[in-house]
Design brief:
The protein has nine helices and ten strands. The chain is α/β, with parallel strands linked by helices and about 260 residues long. The chain has a single domain, classed as Aldolase class I (TIM Barrel, Alpha-Beta Barrel). The protein binds phosphoenolpyruvate and manganese (II) ion (MN).
């Protein structure tokens, strides 16, 4: 069924932020936490441009086992330092059910990646905590399967679920994935869960990130999660889709003008 357990509404993230209440939340930061310098420089930059959440992966779900796997718990420590420095709440991916219990009290939002959307032990573990969960759509998952994954978390007792459309697989490799924007208003008509869009993984190309960000907000998305790197050409992961700090600042200006117009 397409129904998810109610009642739902804005998700309280804490630190004065709630997602889904009418204002737009922009989560921004590097794909991966790589070093203290990289994270702090990027975090300070996105904070001064008006981001409301800092993103950064410490446990990375890489398709290739020889690719950079993330800094793990050391990356979490750096995120905590960047939160202290900037005041921004943090979102980071959790891959293992065993990591949920210790990570949940430390971070502000736990991300479930596209490759984990149907990791049922992980979803059940997330149902047992009250930390907000950013649930990415599986790259080959239907809306029905996505909402049933959300239901695992909601039914477990955690009502703080934020959905994230990040593009799905199609026949066309000219973009990394195919951004399925029509499901933003669709899912908002089916549930009262906040929906955010990830234009970075959806397109894989930095020049497509701003137009798709604006389109997502025009379609009614409650926010965005955008990859930003202080030196994208040196990124260990997802550099080609990462905005540099001036480009992110330009995007934030365009977002505020769009929101004034809507
Ligand atoms: C990410 O956010 O860096 C990520 C791995 O995203 P996805 O799970 O959507 O590929
Ligand atoms: Mn990434």
């Amino acid at each position: 069924s397409l129904e998810v357990s109610g009642p739902q509404g804005p998700v309280e993230v804490g630190r004065g932020l709630s997602i889904g209440g009418g204002s737009v939340a922009v989560m921004a930061g590097p794909c991966s936490v790589e070093s203290r310098e990289q994270l702090l420089e990027t975090a300070r930059g996105v904070a001064s441009s008006g981001a409301s959440v800092l993103r950064g992966g410490a446990f990375k779900p890489r398709s290739n086992p020889y690719s950079f796997q993330g800094l793990g718990s050391q990356g979490i420590d750096l995120l905590l330092e960047a939160r202290e420095d900037t005041g921004l709440p943090i979102v980071t991916e959790v891959m293992s059910p065993e990591d949920v219990e210790w990570l949940a009290p430390q971070v502000d939002i736990l991300q479930v990646g596209t490759r984990s959307m149907q990791n049922f032990p992980l979803l059940k573990a997330l149902g047992r905590v009250d930390t907000p969960v950013l649930l990415k759509r599986g790259m080959a998952s239907t809306v029905d399967e996505w909402l049933q994954a959300a239901e695992y978390i909601l039914a477990g007792g955690n009502s703080r679920v934020i959905l994230c459309e990040r593009g799905i697989r199609s026949f066309d490799k000219s973009t990394r994935n195919t951004l399925d924007l029509s499901i933003v208003p669709l899912v908002k008509s089916l549930t009262h869960l906040p929906v955010v869009v990830d234009p970075s993984h959806a397109t894989g190309k930095r020049h497509l990130v701003a137009p798709m960000s604006l389109a997502a907000l025009a379609a009614g998305a409650d926010g965005l999660i955008v990859e930003v790197h202080s030196r994208p050409e040196e990124a260990l992961c997802d550099g080609p889709q990462s905005l540099d700090l001036p480009a992110f600042d330009g995007l934030m200006n365009r977002i505020s003008r769009l929101m004034d117009a809507l």
